[in-house]
Amino acid sequence: MTDIPLTEPLQPTPLGTTHPDAARSDSFVTLPPGVARIATLVGVAGTIVSTFMSWTYTSAFPGDLTVNGYPGGLQVLTLIGAILTGLVALGAFGVKGLTWLVPNRSPNAVLLLAAGTFATTWYAVIAIAQELGGLANLNPGGFVAAVASLVLLVGTLGLPIDRQPLDPSGAEYYELGRLSENGPARGTYRWLRQARLNHGELPVPDPARAPAWVQYLTIVVVAAAGVKVLTYGLATGYTELFIGYLILVVFTLWAFIAAGLTRQFSKITADHRPFAALMGVVAAVAYPFVQNNEHWANLGVNILIFGTVALGLNIVVGLTGLLDLGYVAFLGVGAYAAALVSGSQYSIWSGVEFPFWAAALTGMAASLVFGVLIGAPTLRLRGDYLAIVTLGFGEIFRIAVNNLDGVSGPKVTNGPNGISQIPDLSVFGYNLGDPHQFGSITLGRFANYYLLMLVITVIVVLVFTRASDSRIGRSWIAIREDETAATAMGINGFRVKLIAFALGASLAGLAGTVSAHVTYSVVPNPYQFSGAAPPNSAFLLAAVVLGGMGTVSGPVLGAALLYIVPEKLGFLQRYELFAFGVTLILIMRFRPEGIIPNRRRKLEFHQDEALLPAQQALGDGTAALGKAGA
Amino acid sequence: MRHRSLLLLTTVLTTGALTLTACGSRSDDGKKSGDDGSSGTGSNITLTIGVDAPLTGQNSATGLGLQYGTQIAVDDANSKKLVPGVTFKVKALDDKALPATGQQNATALVQDSNVIATVGPLNSGVAESMQQVFATANMVEISPANTNPDLTQGKDWASGKKVRPFKTYFRTATTDANQGGFAADYAYNTLKKKNVFVVDDKQAYGAGLAAIFKGKFASLGGKIAGTDHVNTGDTDYSALVTKIKQSHADMLYYGGQYDESELITKQLKAGGVNIPLMGGDGMYSDTYIKTAGKAATGDLATSVGVPVSTLPAAQNFIKAYKAKGYPGDYGTYGGYSYDAATAIINAVKTVMDANGGKLPAMNDARAKLVDAVQKTDFDGIAGHVSFDQYGDTTNKQLTVYQVKNGAWTAVKSGVYSG
Amino acid sequence: MHTLPQQLANGLFLGSMYGLIAIGYTMVYGIVQLINFAHGEIFMTGAFGALTVWNCLPDGMNIWAALPLMLIGGAIVSVLIAVGAERFAYRPLRGAPRLAPLITAIGLSLALQQAIFVWYPGADNAKDFPQLGTHPYHLGSIAIQRNDIFLVAAAVVCMVGLAAFVRTSRTGRAMQATAQDPDTAQLMGIDTNRIIVIAFAIGGLFAAVAGVAFGLKYGQITYNMGFQAGLKAFTAAVLGGIGNIYGAMLGGLVLGIAEACATAYIANIPGMHQLGGQGWANVWAFVLLIVVLLVRPQGLLGERVADRA
């Protein structure tokens, strides 16, 4: 149901001189085209030069920005940003040999990169002034950097930026309602809508025409660069550097999207899916070798565990559309099952020590049993009831393991003290608890577990992709889209949903078996609905939605972001959860399909925007009719 | 053209990667020289004491007490120059009361080559995931708050087979075993209570304490009128109060934190059951009296050490805490944190003295610190600090406090001997 | 001494509070099929709003005189937040798949909770709340607090008022129509947006009343009190038949009494002595919900369309 004001017929806006469907380009700052280009290049050059100068006279600011002739810390980020901006700008201006950087010839990418460079530089300068107390702490280099990056930004704002087609008048009524009668509010809103960059529809050359080896090499290089960028971000030693890094990475990725590079790249990966997947795995395997640090390996394991569980939840939520609010309990069931058969002296079967494969199967089987037990009665009910029952199950699980200690319940889980001193795993005689030498690199305990968890993640990804491409996967999607219609087409809704629910549960149980060994202990507290850190049911759901429902890479990316960003942004401390909540609201508001959208999902969420121009073309009467019937 | 562009791409990426790598090594150097520069003299070194505690969320008030208790100890050591040539600083990490996060913090502290030892954590469940990490790295961990006997004495401590699982783990808090026993003794012999209802919050600390109290009280000849367990976060205890009323108990023993016990005592008195509530050091806090109000009058709590008012050092600590306006609740574990940090600082001095006034290489220093901490022997602000062969504090001095006129008043202080 | 009457009374008081909160869930669900997860937090902010009013009033003021002002203050806060959430967080997502508003609700719930925790002075510990005296009245063997009497009275007044409003007023009938079929209702000239806002506002109002009653009953409020209460209230709403306002109240009462009885009596059943008590009460509450859903999927009173609002 949409609520277009029927009294106000759709009309092309009087603001636009062109047809709203037509491509439109407009600069933000009016400059002669030549001046804008020159300003851009001068800004790039100035910014690059500034990073070789000293920005502040004291080394009290982290990263030591006092050295002349050798960029360090935040200066490096500015330098990289400026170089990228320069290259992309030259490409956009048509310099031969660089045009491939901007396949769609749009200057939008230049603007975004310039904005990223500007933001990083100004953030650095402001941080210096604020932390050291005043602008007096800036050396000339700092001022040069600030001015040059400002020139760069202004120059790119003068370029002819590709924009979204103009809106029909009255479009703001959707969003603003009564507020649209308020002049300033409507004006601001209209300006914001017009300011939106357009980079979705601009045509790009098909990369499939390039030689095959170029395509393969691109995948390799991108994977390598991905590992490098990720490990650099993780290794950032202080908060200021991480924030600068975050700003630059976000803007650069956005610029690559705006340039059409990501579209080309996703086409290449789609054409060479097995190879791309292989490279992804190789990059992931390389991580503990490149980033040879136990803390980051530990973080890596936790991210993989969290991401794998999120992927399992994605089957239930993303593919089948079942709302599971107690999913973390299945992780807990797997972890407890594995702990009980691990040979820990705190287990009630302390003599029993299963080999890893058997423990993993036990964890999966236990979760599967619970999944069927919960699913069988409730999946016959309507969707919303499943939400409350799973929420209840999550609570029951936590309370029950807390009480099953022989005092306030049968003796199974050792109650609040949990099962601790879980011995390390040994796979084919390779003890995961000990450090192992590989050439000059020593893989510590957490690196070993990281690699083991990676194997599990790959298995889960395979299960996920094979299942979603199969007959049953299509039934899941059909159920999600319209259960009544799917049932009418002969799909046994209950059975299909139960399979999804049980499969999701057992994948979480599998991840749980590893997590029990990694943390040496299982205790009831972490398995709650919402808490301060992942994994808990709310964070899992957020990872799936944030990353993109129904995709493979989405939830893993979402999980990584939810784990790394709070970890690195220590300064947020008590504001962290508040920021998390607000972020969830904003993401749902502005990009509900997630960071990596499933194609079908994207259409669902942006139905109005996709249909509107088309309907416009048909004329007012049809549009109104079509909408009213929709 | 394709070939050329490819070349360009590779060049750009390689350059970028190289620059990044170069930067990584450079910023490390910069950091070290920065530390040297900030402390003034060239020969001065900076050592970090890690803190792990829940600093945000539900247990954060107590967790922040750990952080700033340690901070004050470090400030004192720096201003008194307890260890010449060494400036101490605190690196506090937030474990959010989650084992996996605590473990991550442990690996981060171990990896940080400036961290010499760690104070924390608050929760026994978190400690379980951290102990092994510190043991592998030979790094001292002193918890000011863990009370679960398993952590130092192994699984079968109750049957007398005590085995120390980790030689790097110490604690300045006493185990539940001492406190629960002392409380039972006081309730039976001094208060002459014969019929006690026992409730706990089903957390490692509370359940352990309540179980030991129950066992000791029964063995003294008292009667357990009934038992029940609550969930942390519950607010309505009316059904429980009715049960207690029916049991005709003459005292309620509660194992847990003040968050729940302040509600229970209020609802108990409002339900017309005028019996005292007794608990452990988890509720020995001014917050309890403030929130429970008049209902708290007559309630009791045990705590480790002699009463703070008899020790000038402790009063200075409280004064410093209030003067600096630190957040959090110093009452419960702040003093133990201070003592834990001081034990580390003293041990650093021992290690350096044995090495000719210099700190050995970090791995070596950490290993030597374990032995030095084991031999700790000084008077802290919460009593005498030294560790037995299991890493437990030898301070068996316990005090019973009662709420009188809106304040905790010491009513009995003594040594518990099993 | 037999304790059953006292335990029933305990359950009745607790249940009245669940019911008051559950009405907010059920009204919103009935009209827009949205589980407003943040409703527990709206209840919490209502209590904090009332406490702020109390703290602004001169010291030593009579609590009976202050109570109306506190109720108004709490209601203003809760209703503003509820309506604001609808306007800026939920409405833009109305056409989207139902997961989107749910995630928004979880985010909103976290944000509200943390906002109070971080910015309300002293809210990292429990905050004192004034009480209407703590000496119980005795009715036979039952001890009753004045605070509990207020709670039950408030629940009855709210319930009767709401029933009258929905049945007789023009807006109330428009609400029923919108609940039945929003598209048709809109074609009949009902401004469904307005109706949805009113549903959120009434939910917020009742949550504020429940928040004040909570503070009076327990003498303290905490920043995270909304989660447990909201979870229970949502359970109550489903138990009674979601979308049905009488069902919400009945579900609340049944749930409260079930919890009290589980705490008191489950342990007396042979073979279950370890599975009773306060610790397991929540588990039994959810078990009751699951059993009811299996036997009567539409809830105790069902989602009778005629009464849905």
TrEMBL record, chain A:
The keyword Acetylation does not apply. GO terms for molecular function: branched-chain amino acid transmembrane transporter activity. The chain crosses the membrane at residues 34-57, 77-102, 109-129, 141-159, 216-235, 241-262, 274-290, 296-320, 327-348, 354-376, 447-465, 498-518, 538-563. It is found in: Cell membrane. Residues 1-23 are annotated as: Disordered. Its main location: membrane. The keyword Transmembrane helix applies. It is a multi-pass membrane protein. Keywords: Cell membrane, Membrane, Transmembrane, Transmembrane helix. This is Amino acid/amide ABC transporter membrane protein 2, HAAT family. It comes from Actinacidiphila yanglinensis. GO terms for cellular component: plasma membrane. It comes from the Bacteria.
TrEMBL record, chain B:
Residues 1-22 form the signal peptide. Residues 46-406 form the Leucine-binding protein domain. Keywords: Signal. It holds the Pfam family Peripla_BP_6. PROSITE patterns: PROKAR_LIPOPROTEIN. Belongs to the leucine-binding protein family. This is Amino acid/amide ABC transporter substrate-binding protein, HAAT family. It comes from Actinacidiphila yanglinensis. The lineage of its organism: Bacteria, Bacillati, Actinomycetota, Actinomycetes, Kitasatosporales.
UniProtKB/TrEMBL annotation, chain C:
Gene3D superfamilies: ABC transporter involved in vitamin B12 uptake, BtuC (1.10.3470.10). One of its GO terms (cellular component) is plasma membrane. Belongs to the binding-protein-dependent transport system permease family. LivHM subfamily. One of its GO terms (molecular function) is L-valine transmembrane transporter activity. GO terms for biological process: D-alanine transmembrane transport; L-alanine transport; L-isoleucine import across plasma membrane. It holds the Pfam family BPD_transp_2. The lineage of its organism: Bacteria, Bacillati, Actinomycetota, Actinomycetes, Kitasatosporales. The keyword Transmembrane applies. Keywords: Amino-acid transport, Cell inner membrane, Cell membrane, Membrane, Transmembrane, Transmembrane helix, Transport. It comes from the Bacteria. It is found in: Cell membrane. It comes from Actinacidiphila yanglinensis. This is Amino acid/amide ABC transporter membrane protein 1, HAAT family. It is a multi-pass membrane protein. The chain crosses the membrane at residues 12-35, 63-85, 97-120, 149-166, 195-216, 245-267, 279-295. Its main location: membrane.
